[in-house]
Amino acid sequence: MTLDPESQQLQRRMKRRRALSRGLIYFIAIFISLWILVPLYFLGSMAFTDQASVRAYPKQVLPLIPFSLDTMSFFLKSHGILKGLLNSIIVAIITLVLSTLIAAPAGYAVSRYFFKGRDVFRLSILAVRAFPIVILAIPLAVVFISLGIFDSVYSLALMHTALTLPTTVLILSSVFASIPYELEEAAMVFGCTPVQAFRKVVFPLVLPGIAASAIFTFVMSWNEVFAASVLSLQNRTLPAQVFFALSQSSEAYQFAGGFFMMIPSLIFIFIIRNYLFNMWGQVSK
Amino acid sequence: MKKSKKPASFNWTPYWLILPTLLYLAFFFAWPMFQALKLAIWEDNALLRLKDSVNSSRFTVSLAQGTLVDIIKDETVALSPEELAGAQAGIERWYLLEFTGDSGPLQAWAPESRIRLPENTEAIGALAPVLATVRSKIGSSDPLTSVYVSPDDNSEVISKLAARTEVRVVEGVGLEHWYLIHPKNTPNKQGWASANMLQIYNDQSARIDRGNQGQFTLKFIQKMFNDRFFRPALLTTLLLTLLIIPVQFVLAIIMALIIQSRIKGSGLFLYIFAIPLGVSELAVGILFFAIFTQNGLLNSSLESLGLIAKPITFLSADNKTGIIIAIWLAEIWRATSLVMVIVVSGLQAISDEILEAAEIFGAGLWQRVRFVILPLLKPSLQVALILRTILALQVFAVVVALSGGDVVSVLANESFRQYSDLRNYNVAAAYAGLILLISMVSAVIYLRTLRAHEEAGL
After folding, report:
1. Cβ–Cβ of A243/B425 closer than 8 Å?
2. In this model, does residue B6 exceed pLDDT 50?
3. Bridge partner list, B51
4. Distance separating alpha carbons of residues A44 and A256, to the nearest angstrom
5. Selected residue with higher pLDDT from B155 and B331
């Protein structure tokens, strides 16, 4: 194929422009990645070195400073941390189970049925999602005190379920919506009852999505600090414990604690990264 | 893929399916919300309801706490054991004693204060006889204790007992004094009140000490407005929201466009961009504290590069700007991911044909973004904007981690301080209500203005 010199030149210029814009995209992408990763790397370095390197100035990062579990074990052995860790895990697991069990039917209903009040239900769920936690935590604390269930991991889990439920409903409804109804219909044509069709066809397909949503619920509960601080005194979760110790603790404690709290999210976001848009797609529609 | 399974008859199934969610949210969301708003504008026990007689259940008037009242007369009633269990202060106990008098066994009443009972004798009503002794009187002209014919110290004195006389207690009663009162100079507003609600000055006058009825009040909201942290907290919150949101949206759209450009490695970029989505607010606060603290990452790297001679103090009480910048960067670091994810979902809904068509007609990148992508993204942006504004109004842990919560404060932090340090639940609820109000107003404004633009565009 021969082209006149003018169009060849045009094609070359187009190519060059493409390469240039691609280079620009990479440049910006790497710049933003560094903006996110460099602070994390610094905090990670501080968490996994000896305490002398944490106190040193100017501070350096791994591998310029010795790798050591000293700082991290200092943090984990500090007062209330292991108990807080255990509490955090208990609260997050109860929240995850409750929230998924309650939200799954609602998510299914919203994605599968047209019913009167469906839009109102979705809108109010969205509104609840956006409500300030601050508002809920304080009256619930007053209520819990009067009911005598204040300062317990179970009451905190009830609160966290209320906070995560709307998000879980929205996420699960988009997970169910991604499974075509025709599959269920086909199963019923072949003689399944609706319940069987759900159990044998839909359930295996949505299981990864439900798992992703459950992980996200876990992370939300794990991270939550305001309600946890308001609703507990002795039975603090990890973030609440770190929060209250913040002003009287050493930098080694703070840095190791900060990084330790991030670890689950670093892992979990990696696991569920492909579900993120699936999860949030529904929110904006 | 939304289909009704049985369009012909009314289908209750979806309602059963959403019922658990509705119930849960009603109990753990709507009800506490209602309680919260009530806490802010409702003062429990602000008023004392006066009865039209001691044993009646009808009320005459309600008087505010602190009112000075005149006492017209008083009356004593015996409480049943159930009433006594629920009663608080102001109860007088009397005991019926059996003892050997000059002319044989006698029975008479004495007040609790005059009898030394074995410990844990709280019972009221007929008792299996309990041994007790009469207390000695100190500093009184009459060393003997009077015992009465009925449980009332105005009744007839049966006998006088010496200190340490052994007696048997056979019955106990709980007495409550009631007073017929009216506010000073307004004798027509009269009614009965029990002694434990009053602070008695003398036989004629008293002050209403406690109440038993709630009342609407603006007191707590006023207290919030008058708090010295209120104005700075409000201004900082609004300022932070204004600073955070625009930068966040520009950055989020750029990040979303990078993900959507499908360059090699966009999966990796997606993961990196999404990391902050799962990181807790407190951890981000600590992260940025590690950067900006005096011997933190920023000073360390600047000094290693030879740009500064000695560390700069970014986070100190007299460098509010530094703290606000640190909070601003921390919030951008943390919450841009959420906007990005929503924007990417929105972008995925825009068909490639439209973008290709725009490209074929010679639209450059900027033109495509400005005239094609942004208008089509409007619904997603609207949701993201509302969500982010509301969340920005609630920044809390980041602020505490970076400023200690004193130097720079925000509304959520003030609410927490009122709750946790000052134990002022009502003012804390007022702050929470204010955050709710600002959130709602801003959501309505976004919905209105974005819709108005839409209509203008048509």
Report:
1. no
2. no
3. B59, B192
4. 8
5. B331
Please state, in angstroms and rounded to a whole number, the distance separating the CA atoms of residues B391 and A167. Answer: 14
The continuous run of DSSP H or E covering B406 comes out as none
Q: How many other CB atoms are there within 10 angstroms of residue B421's CB atom?
A: 9
In this complex, which of B270, B286, B348 lies closest to A258 when CB atoms are compared?
B286
Say how far apart CA B315 and CA A131 lie, in whole Å.
31
Tens-place pLDDT, residues A208-228: 888 888 888 898 899 888 888
The alpha carbon of residue B326 is apart from the nearest alpha carbon of chain A, in Å, by 13
> Does residue A68 sit in helix, strand or coil?
coil
Comparing alpha-carbon positions, the chain A residue that sits nearest to B295 is A57
CB A149 within 8 A of CB A235: no
d(CA B158, CA B156): 6
Q: Which two tokens stand for residue A79?
A: 């007062």
- CB contacts of B275 in chain A (<8 Å) are 36, 40, 265-266, 269
Q: What burial letters (b/e) apply to B95-107, b meaning 16+ CB within 10 Å?
A: bbbebeeeeeebb
CA dihedral sign, ordered B291, B297, B299, B305: negative
Distant-in-sequence, close-in-space partners of A133: CB < 8 Å, separation ≥ 6: A163, A224, A226, A227, B394
**Could you tell me if B48 and B208 are in contact, meaning their C-beta atoms sit under 8 angstroms apart?**
yes
When pLDDT is averaged across residues B370-396 and rounded to a whole number, the result is 84
- Asked whether B244 and B326 are in contact (CB, 8 A), the reply is no
Q: Minimal Cα–Cα distance from B383 to chain A, Å?
A: 6
Question: What are the tens digits of pLDDT across the range B390-447?
Answer: 888 888 888 888 887 778 889 988 988 888 888 888 898 889 889 888 988 888 888 8
Measure Cα distances from A99 to A103, A106, A215, A216, B133 in Å: 6, 11, 11, 11, 63
Report the pLDDT value the prediction gives residue B2, as an integer from 0 to 100: 45
Specify the pTM: 0.79
